[in-house]
Amino acid sequence: MVDKPTGLKIGVISDTHGLLRPEAIDALQGVDDIIHAGDIGKQPIIETLADIAPLHVISGNIDTADWASDYPQTLSLSLAGKSIYVLHDVNAIAVDPVDAGIDIVISGHSHKPALTEQGGVLYLNPGSAGPRRFKLPVTIAMINIIEAKISAEIVPLQLAQT
């Protein structure tokens, strides 16, 4: 009998700007955790995402309503033994991820999906899952941590034609 590898699947979403698309909800089904990297827009988005999986949330620059004060501007967490740092605008990072032992930096803000590695740190921007901006795709991201190995991908949402 072969043991199944132990792992964690994390859904990452950002810049919903008050619009939680049904395609995003569908894409996040089955994840173990969800991270929202800010610019939520409306409180009900948090409630819906929390019904899917344990939720880790930061506020973004548009999250100025009273309900948003419940969420920090940055978040440090450990999932599956990996250190994850979440902030809305990666250009505002105030720590050195390598020196701090951070494995993954998650940000939003630009609406541009990006997945890069620098100095052994994975930098992930899931792009925007909310209203389409410019000609940028509507996306989320997935992180898999299996037996201490990290992999990630940008997931384009297949939007219903209207």
What do these coordinates show?
- With 162 residues, the chain is mainly beta.
- It has one domain: Purple Acid Phosphatase, chain A, domain 2 (4-Layer Sandwich), CATH 3.60.21.
- It contains three helices and ten strands, in the order βαβαβββαβββββ.
- It has helices at residues 22-28, 43-52, 97-100, and strands spanning 7-13, 33-36, 55-57, 74-79, 82-87, 104-106, 114-118, 121-125, 139-146, 149-156.
- α1 links the parallel β1 and β2.
- The longest helix is centred in the first third of the chain and has 10 residues, at 43-52.
- It is globular, with a radius of gyration of 15 Å.
- It starts with 6 loop residues before the first strand and ends in a 6-residue tail after the last strand.
- 36% of the residues are buried.
State the CATH superfamily name: Metallo-dependent phosphatases
**Name of the CATH architecture:** 4-Layer Sandwich
Largest sheet: 5 strands, mixed
Quote the beta fraction: 25-35%
Secondary-structure-derived class: mainly beta
**For this structure, what is the CATH class?**
Alpha Beta
Portion in helices: 10-25%
Strand order of the largest sheet: 3-2-1-9-10
Characterize the overall form: globular
Number of contiguous helices: 3
What is the typical, i.e. mean, pLDDT?
94
CATH topology: Purple Acid Phosphatase, chain A, domain 2
The radius of gyration computed from the alpha-carbon positions, rounded to a whole number of angstroms, is 15 Å
Separation of termini?
Answer: 49 Å
List the domain count as a whole number. 1
How many beta strands in the DSSP annotation?
A: 10
Order of helices and strands: EHEHEEEHEEEEE
| Low-pLDDT sequence parts | none
